[in-house]
Specification:
29% of the residues lie in helices and 33% in strands. The protein contains 8 helices and 18 strands. It is extended.
Length: 321
């Protein structure tokens, strides 16, 4: 009997602990999680998503840049419309759009319009206007560095905030930084066939059941060499760009010395073309014409020779023996 009496306090304590645990697990913790999520959401400066963005207009000491998002256009999802019309680097533009849509403040500053100048916001050092679907827009203005040196003062409407420095690299980007620098834009795995035309003739390679063959002349190809070539080609970046009077510039180059055609998918239509020119005045340079909306690209002759090989490069080891 005495042992039963001694167990009662322990049982009672266990019941109390179980009830407390149940309260924490089912009531307190979910409530805390909801509160944390609500606080995180409230710290976001904007409610739009990346897909809502139609245009981004950036103004600052480096000038004015206007980016346009072209929904439904996988090959050129972003374009630059100012200071010139050209293709944007979708990786750079897309990351900037993502950062803007997820931008959070670390603290809201108690400030009135009379205080804006003291934060470097009248006038701001940089302004970023985001045009959204439905013609709505949001304006972000960037001022001075915060006291920690790791934050910036920013203004949305008449509210002043401290934000992190994630946007800092984008404030000073010039045209070359925003534009697409790759001469050809494709994924190697999507290429179905390609054709190289040069002084030694025309060579056509095609993929069949994940293996590559040389159609003209008909031989087996070294698939590893083909993929290596396509990887180098898709990574080829221009050294400089010619945007103005492109048609007249191309006419002045004369006849091309090489051509390249790339077919994506099994449809058979050519998706990418490149025409290569050189001049007597610049024997160490090669000019490349691709799609009509792209600039005239300039690369070095060395880069061309490293990337565009002779057809013997693609022959399998068995064929070479």
């Amino acid at each position: 009997m005495s042992s039963m009496k001694s167990l009662r306090p322990s049982i009672f304590l266990a019941v109390i602990l179980a009830a407390l645990f149940a309260y924490l697990y089912f009531v307190e913790l979910p409530g805390k999680e909801k509160k944390e999520k609500a606080e995180a959401a409230s710290s976001r400066l904007f409610t739009f998503s990346e897909s809502d963005i139609v245009e981004i207009i950036i103004e600052g000491a480096s000038g004015r840049t206007r980016l346009q998002q072209l929904s439904g256009n996988p090959d050129t999802p972003w374009r630059i419309s100012e200071p010139i019309e050209t293709i944007a680097d979708e990786g750079v533009a897309g990351m900037f759009a993502s950062l803007l849509s997820n931008l959070k403040s670390t603290r809201k500053i108690d400030a009135t319009p009379a205080d804006f100048a003291s934060f470097g916001l009248s006038p701001p050092a940089h302004s970023i206007r985001v045009i959204l679907t439905g013609s709505d827009s949001d304006l972000l203005e960037i001022g001075d560095l915060g006291m920690s040196g790791q934050t910036f003062y920013a203004k949305v409407g008449n509210n002043v905030y401290l934000i992190g420095n994630d946007l800092t690299p984008y404030f000073t980007k010039g045209l070359t930084d925003w534009r697409r620098q790759e001469v050809f834009h494709f994924f190697s795995s999507d290429v179905q066939s390609f054709e190289i035309e040069g002084p030694q003739g025309t060579s056509t390679l095609t993929k069949a059941s994940e293996k590559w063959i040389i159609k003209t002349p008909s031989e087996s190809a070294d698939s590893a060499k083909v993929l290596e070539f396509l990887g180098r080609l898709s990574s080829l970046r221009a050294e400089s760009f010619i945007d103005e009077n492109k048609t007249q510039q191309v006419k002045a180059l004369g006849a091309p010395f090489s051509r390249l055609k790339i077919t994506i998918g099994s449809g058979g239509s050519v998706s990418h073309e490149g025409t290569f020119y050189t001049t007597k005045d610049e024997p160490e340079s090669v000019y490349v014409v691709t799609q009509p909306s792209a600039p005239l690209y300039k690369i070095s002759l060395k880069s061309f020779e490293e990337i565009i090989p002779d057809v013997t490069y693609f022959k399998s080891q068995d064929e070479k023996k």
